[in-house]
Design a protein that fits this description.
The complex is a heterodimer of chains A (396) and B (308).
Chain A lengths: L1 H25 L4 E7 L6 H17 L3 E2 L2 E9 L4 H13 L5 E4 L3 H12 L4 E4 L16 E3 L6 H12 L4 E7 L2 H13 L3 E8 L8 H10 L3 E4 L4 H12 L8 E3 L8 H8 L3 E4 L8 H14 L5 H19 L7 H10 L10 E2 L5 E12 L5 E13 L12
Parallel strand pairs in A: 1-3, 1-4, 4-5, 5-6, 7-8, 7-9, 9-10
Antiparallel strand pairs in A: 2-3, 11-13, 12-13, 13-14
Chain B lengths: L1 H31 L6 H19 L2 H24 L7 H23 L15 E5 L2 E4 H23 L1 H11 L1 H6 L4 H23 L9 H16 L4 H29 L2 H26 L14
Antiparallel strand pairs in B: 1-2
Helix pairs in contact in B: 1-5, 1-6, 1-8, 1-9, 1-10, 2-3, 2-4, 2-8, 2-9, 3-8, 5-6, 9-10, 10-11
Classes of the chains: A alpha/beta (396), B mainly alpha (308).
Chain lengths: 396, 308
């Protein structure tokens, strides 16, 4: 009898504690952030890198923004648009977050962002940059700490023009980002296009059919976009097909600090364009890269850098509004100022809330202790605005 | 023409990998009436073991052998601990339980080998290219996969069609209760079938490891196609699985290679570019529907179902 009463009391206490905790959790104290990224499946390493970087940013700010405690909820989209939408809705309803960041994949972002913006949250993309959100349909409560998809391949097109590459075979996966990347590349590349090939997304992992076609077409170069593990696979299979060294290979977003340890031998000497690299020399980046290496024992990827910047951007907005996140107009105005030290150096938003930023040429080199790294060669674009911004009617 | 031959080889090579994967699946379904979603996890384990043992031994051949033994051992342990209790349960419970196993294996692999993918180079003597006919250059490793797959298919055929164990297996697949009534030790037979399935699935993973990035979740990507193969081939039929795997492999590869080009001759470039890849990825499922309309029980239906 006694034991039963005791047990009953204990249950009651737990329920009460849960209710109280839940009430305080929802009352509006503190900054609530959700991150939707990929934590399972083939791209888990990317999502993991972003989460680690976000946690490092929280460490750096003492886990508070403008004197308020920060709670972050990490959600896994499994690289699937439906799942991304579901998780975004859950962040809005259950966690009542004020900011949602993350979003590796353009198709996931496009399926999800409305669920957040229409429920009154700000979306800060830390990777995906689909053209749909940059042009005529630009959205007041959407911001990006990465780039618009077209930009990085545009810079690569310029690099290949300088090298007088003439006839290029183009490959990308058949989804929003793949289409944007190809369109960006074709905007600046002046040579002819031998063929334009789209592969199945996200389940195609074998490129034998495409490699046979490349061999038959015998172009003067190949340019492709296959992010993360897809890139690793393409490089490996390209080498196995005996095409490496036969037909020069150029790529965008396919070599990063995550897959470099695996494919370094295949891509030594390869050149690529990027808005950020661990080698960029500025105080914010030195701190980020050094502490990331110290905490996690590896070099952060550009995905991590963007996630880190998204945390810093949110912090700047919380401080800029003196902690009042209820008025969307003042929050938006504070975000637009981008009053933070970006790891990429100078950083400001264009009118479509995508960054106006520099792009650099990097080269894969064998550095200290025989590890491969990305060496900074030169600046390709200064303060580059994406090609869709002109169609965006938002005033800044 | 040269390109077509090369694409044909690509399709066949993909087909034999699919066959290794689906042969075990169809046997386990046919003999035990068991839906095993965790079959893809054994494929993933085979690949991870191949990387691990190759690094340990320094030789791909030794590593592959050790990986095959290890995957089979995991299969045996899995059968005894988890699968054995599921044979008499309804399919829905089997699906739920084996789905749980997928999560278990994925999370386990992440804990042991980390979230980043692993990479395995093909052995030195297979890393080059082979000139099959003048003009037809083919990666040596892919050719080796094709040969190994065909050899395994032949060995499996001999096992099923020519040995006493194979006879028992066919008997159980055709009518399990009758076989049991005639004195077949079904417990031992089931364990053997499951171990064989695990070994075949592991072999597919081992062979695929140098072609792909070895990573968590790689099993589920191929599992769907393996089920398509099982359904097209006729549930329980190894011969059906072989034919269906080759059909699916060829349709997938040739569809990807030629469909966008064919569409471009009919539509304008932009429409063809938009429709082509989407249609190519649907092609397998469209063919499955067509085949099932003509032959509702698959290409080579077994005479009787396991529970029949």
């Amino acid at each position: 009898m006694n034991i039963r009463a005791l047990a009953g009391l204990a249950v009651l206490a737990v329920i009460l504690a849960a209710v109280i905790f839940n009430l305080t959790g929802n009352k509006g104290d503190g900054v609530r952030i959700g991150m939707v990224t990929t934590l399972t499946g083939g791209a888990a390493a990317i999502g993991n890198d972003m989460r680690d970087a976000f946690e490092l940013a929280l460490d750096h700010m003492g886990r508070s923004m403008g004197g308020q405690p920060v709670t972050v909820t990490y959600e896994d989209d499994a690289q699937n648009p439906d799942m991304g939408l579901q998780k975004t809705e859950r962040l809005m309803q259950r966690d009542k977050v004020q900011f949602v960041t993350g979003y590796i994949w353009s198709n996931v972002l496009l399926a999800s962002y409305r669920a957040a913006t229409e429920a009154g949250a700000f979306v800060i993309s830390a990777n995906a940059g689909p053209s749909e959100l940059a042009g005529a349909q630009c959205t007041p409560n959407f911001f990006s700490t990465s780039w618009q998809n077209d930009q990085t391949p545009m810079a690569m097109g310029e690099v290949m023009n300088r090298r007088n590459v003439s006839n290029v075979y183009v490959l990308a996966p058949n989804y929003a980002a793949g289409r944007n990347m190809v369109s960006g590349f074709k905007r600046t590349f002046k040579g002819s296009i031998a063929a334009e090939e789209y592969t199945q997304w996200p389940d195609q992992i074998d490129f034998a059919a495409e490699l046979a076609k490349i061999r038959a077409a015998n172009p003067s170069a190949v340019w492709f976009f296959f992010p993360g593990n897809y890139g690793t696979q393409f490089f490996k299979q390209y080498a196995q097909a005996g095409l490496l060294g036969q037909i020069p290979l150029y790529s965008s977003f396919s070599i990063d600090d995550l897959n470099l340890p695996q494919i370094g031998d295949l891509v030594a000497g390869a050149q690529l364009t990027q808005h950020w690299g661990a080698a960029l020399d500025n105080p914010a980046n030195r701190k980020f890269v050094d502490d990331f290496r110290k905490k996690y024992g590896r070099t952060p990827s550009f995905y991590a850098a963007q996630a880190y910047d998204s945390a810093m951007l949110i912090k700047s907005a919380v401080e800029g509004t003196r902690g009042d996140l209820t008025n969307h107009d003042t929050v938006r105005a504070a975000l637009e100022k981008a009053n933070f030290e970006s790891v990429r150096g100078t950083f400001r938003f264009g009118r479509n809330h995508f960054p106006v930023q520099d792009f650099y040429l990097f080269e894969v080199v064998r550095g200290a202790n025989n590890a491969y790294a990305l060496k900074l060669n030169e600046r390709i674009y200064t303060a580059h605005t994406d090609p869709y911004a002109a169609n965006c009617a938002m005033a800044h | 023409m040269i390109l077509f031959v090369e694409q044909l080889l690509n399709g066949l090579q993909f087909g034999v990998l699919l066959f290794l994967l689906s042969a075990g699946l169809t046997l386990i379904f046919g003999v035990m009436g068991m839906v095993n979603l965790a079959h893809g996890s054994l494929y993933m384990l085979g690949a991870y073991f191949a990387v691990m043992f190759t690094e340990l031994t320094g030789s791909f051949v030794l590593g592959a052998g050790a990986a095959l033994i290890a995957t089979t051992a995991v299969g045996v342990i899995l059968e005894v601990i988890a699968i054995r209790g599921l044979y008499d349960r309804p399919h829905l419970e089997q699906v739920l339980a084996t789905f749980g196993l997928i999560l278990f294996f994925n999370e386990g692999a992440r804990l042991v080998w980390g979230p980043a993918g692993l990479s395995l180079a093909p052995p030195e003597f297979l890393s080059g290219q082979v000139t099959l006919l003048p003009g037809i250059v083919y990666p040596a490793y892919r050719l080796a996969v094709l040969v190994a797959g065909i050899a395994s298919a032949a060995a499996l055929y001999l096992l099923v069609a020519r040995t006493r164990a194979g006879m028992l297996l066919r008997a159980a697949a055709a009518n399990r209760r009758m076989a049991e009534a005639l004195g077949v030790n079904s417990r031992l037979l089931f364990l053997g079938v499951f171990a064989l399935g695990a070994a075949l699935s592991g072999l597919a993973g081992i062979l695929a490891a140098p072609l792909l990035t070895v990573r968590v979740g790689m099993g589920e990507e191929v599992l769907l196609l393996a089920f398509v193969v099982v359904v097209i081939g006729g549930i329980g039929s190894v011969r059906g699985a072989l034919v269906a795997a080759l059909i699916v492999g060829l349709i997938d590869t040739l569809g990807r290679a030629y469909l966008p080009g064919l569409l471009r001759t009919v539509f304008t470039g932009q429409i063809a570019d938009a429709v082509g890849p989407a249609l190519a990825s649907m092609l397998i499922y469209v063919s499955m529907v067509v085949i099932l309309v003509v032959r509702p029980r698959g290409l080579f239906p077994t005479q009787s179902r396991a529970d029949g």
